[in-house]
Amino acid sequence: MPVHKRYFGAALAVALVTAGCGTQTVQMQPPETDGQTAEACAALVADLPDALLGADRATVQPESEIMAAWGDPPIGLRCGVPRPSTLNMESELLEVNDVAWFGQPEDEPTLYTAVEREAYVEVTIPPSHGVPAEALPALSDLIDEHLEERADSGM
What domain of life does the native source organism fall in (predicted)? Predict the structure, then answer.
């Protein structure tokens, strides 16, 4: 049964701002999380790589232990985001290294959300970085290490 999904590009708005000496800063909106989720997300973000898809890690503003960014245009990651509103039991998920990802838009995803974990992790990957899904294996391994699978099947 086909599932119709709507892309909500505003879900993770990232903007690149340059400061002196070539240092880049990425403006991102931090998600609202509870203490337990924030702690698990902070551990995940602390272990993220210094480079992703050949792009170097950038500074995130406002400073947050639950967000990360790389490159120009920026790849952005936020941990502890709300459940995607278009995710349902018929949604097609991409399984990568034991982590289920919900891609949007369905035909050529650039926004992926790791689901079925104690916290949802959202990553936005501009097409200029190549095939967006190529970033998922490294991220999946860290998500699997830091975020427990949900006991329920509510995704």
Answer: Bacteria
